[in-house]
């Protein structure tokens, strides 16, 4: 199917990586269903895309609720006339050390960051099988390495990366590819107040510290991750399934260096 006819469902689309994916998909002429809990943010991006002539609908949903993913898929497929790409991007960290973590906090982390993707994929399976489509999930470097005080988030993201592999194993024979992209330190709406504003001395100091530890010496952007997602969703990646691409500025190669191990020691 030509890019101009592709149909995208994008969760977490109101800001950050999801919004960037929506804009890049629109650049290809795709029709999009944008999903988020943020009503105002959804309308802003939807209005911007409609001004460009994009066929777009919005769905407000809390994907941590078990009944919502199937509704999202049903409404999206009805509007789009099918689904070619499901981008499961919605997620959020839970900040608590394991000794302080509550059962509700743990369950919320798993519900949003893992269960929602499974339920979205399960509901979208018939549509994606029909179109020969694919699923791309936003993972995290926290799914590869523990990150206190984000124990529940790291566990959830690790589970999410394994879910992608399991979906790839089970669903690729049905014509559905499943992959993920895992951001490292990245400037999005979730990092507002942390290191996005260089005019703030504290944020500037945090950003300089983070960048000094990255081999690329720069933080990632939402566009960096979105371009990776679009590649995985594209026909150019037709022989790729069950993999995770780290979009982390080289974080994954710094383990020995961060431990102070140098050549000859």
Give a verbal description of the structure:
It is built from 8 helices and 9 strands. It is an alpha/beta fold. The protein has one domain: 3-Layer(aba) Sandwich (Rossmann fold). Strand 1 (7-11), helix 1 (16-27) and strand 2 form a beta-alpha-beta unit. The mean pLDDT is 90.
Please sum up the structure shown.
By secondary structure, the chain is an alpha/beta fold. The chain has a single domain (3-186, 221-250), classed as Rossmann fold, CATH 3.40.50.720. Helix content is 44%, strand content 15%.
Topology:
Layout: E1 7-11, H1 16-27, E2 31-36, H2 39-51, E3 56-60, H3 68-80, E4 85-88, H4 103-131, E5 134-138, H5 151-171, E6 177-183, E7 186-187, H6 201-213, E8 220-221, H7 222-233, E9 244-247, H8 255-258
Parallel strand pairs: 1-2, 1-4, 2-3, 4-5, 5-6, 6-9, 7-8
Helix pairs in contact: 1-7, 3-4, 4-5
Strand proportion, as a percent range, falls in 15-25%
CATH superfamily: NAD(P)-binding Rossmann-like Domain
**Level-2 CATH architecture:** 3-Layer(aba) Sandwich
CATH class category label: Alpha Beta
| Global geometry | globular
Helix segment tally: 8
Q: How many distinct folded domains?
A: 1
- Rg from Cα: 18 Å
CATH topology: Rossmann fold
State the order of secondary-structure elements, H for helix, E for strand: EHEHEHEHEHEEHEHEH
Can you give the helix content as a percent range?
40-55%
Quaternary state reads: single chain
Largest sheet: 7 strands, parallel
Which structural class fits the helix and strand makeup? Answer: alpha/beta
């Amino acid at each position: 199917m030509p890019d101009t006819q592709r149909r995208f469902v994008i969760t977490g689309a109101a800001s950050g990586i999801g919004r960037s994916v929506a804009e890049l998909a629109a650049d290809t002429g795709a029709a999009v269903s944008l999903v988020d809990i943020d009503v105002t943010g959804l309308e802003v991006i939807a209005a911007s895309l409609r001004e460009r002539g994009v066929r777009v609908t919005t769905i407000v949903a809390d994907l941590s609720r078990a009944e919502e993913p199937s509704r999202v898929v049903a409404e999206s497929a009805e509007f789009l006339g099918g689904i070619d790409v499901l981008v499961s991007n919605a997620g959020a960290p839970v900040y608590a050390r394991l000794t302080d973590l509550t059962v509700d906090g743990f369950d919320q982390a798993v519900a949003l960051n893992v269960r929602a993707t499974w339920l979205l994929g399960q509901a979208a399976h018939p549509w994606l099988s029909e179109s020969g489509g694919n699923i791309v999930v936003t993972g995290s470097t926290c799914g590869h390495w523990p990150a206190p005080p984000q124990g529940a988030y790291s566990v959830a993201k690790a589970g999410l990366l394994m879910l992608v592999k399991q979906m790839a194993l089970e669903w690729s024979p049905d014509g559905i590819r499943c992959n993920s992209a895992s951001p490292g330190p990245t400037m999005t709406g979730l990092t507002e107040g942390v290191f996005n504003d260089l005019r703030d001395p504290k944020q500037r100091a945090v950003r300089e510290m983070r960048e000094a530890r990255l081999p690329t010496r720069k933080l990632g952007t939402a566009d960096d991750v979105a371009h990776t997602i679009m590649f995985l969703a594209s026909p150019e990646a037709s022989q790729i399934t069950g993999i995770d691409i780290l979009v982390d500025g080289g974080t994954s190669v710094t383990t020995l260096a961060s431990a102070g191990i140098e050549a000859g020691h």
